[in-house]
Amino acid sequence: MRLLVFSFLMIASPVFAADVVAEPSFLGSALKMVAALAVVIGILLLFYAASRKGFGVLPQKKNGLIQVVETRPLGGRKFLCVVKVRGEEMLLGLSHDRIEHLSNLSSGDTFEKTLQQVKEDQS
Q: Are 28 and 6 members of one domain?
């Protein structure tokens, strides 16, 4: 703590010792503000880049067995969700109290083809 106070006094002493005070200029103040803003934005970008590479404290996306491919709201607290588990994609219906398996999806099928298969299975 003493070292911090001593270093602050050593840095600030030439400022307090100056007898002549120059008039502040608008251009000088604006340039200082832009430089400070650039430094802050640069630090934020460095932190963001480091966190995306895995060096930060932010949680990383894990490549586990279950991956949520896409989620779409249907209104209220109901959602459709495409989930990939062990290479197989499934369409799930989610509500506030249930999760229901609607269909297995294959990557080459279109929505119309999958809808036809579901209708045939129900008949």
A: yes
What pLDDT, in 10s, does the model give residues 80-123? Answer: 998 988 888 899 999 989 999 988 887 666 767 777 777 788 77
- Scanning the structure block, which residue is given the tokens 């369409």? 91
* Length of the chain (residues): 123
Instruction: Dump pLDDT digits (tens) for 19-71.
Output: 555 677 888 888 999 999 999 999 999 888 877 776 655 555 667 788 888 89
The torsion defined by the Cα of 36, 41, 47 and 53, in degrees rounded to 10, comes to -140
User: Which domain, by its residues, includes 22?
Assistant: 2-53
Number of neighbouring beta carbons within 10 Å of residue 112: 8
Residue 60 lies in a domain: no
Residues 6+ apart with CB under 8 A from 10: none
Same domain, yes or no: 110 and 73: yes
Where does a domain end: 53, 74, 96? 53
Structural domain tally of the chain?
Answer: 2
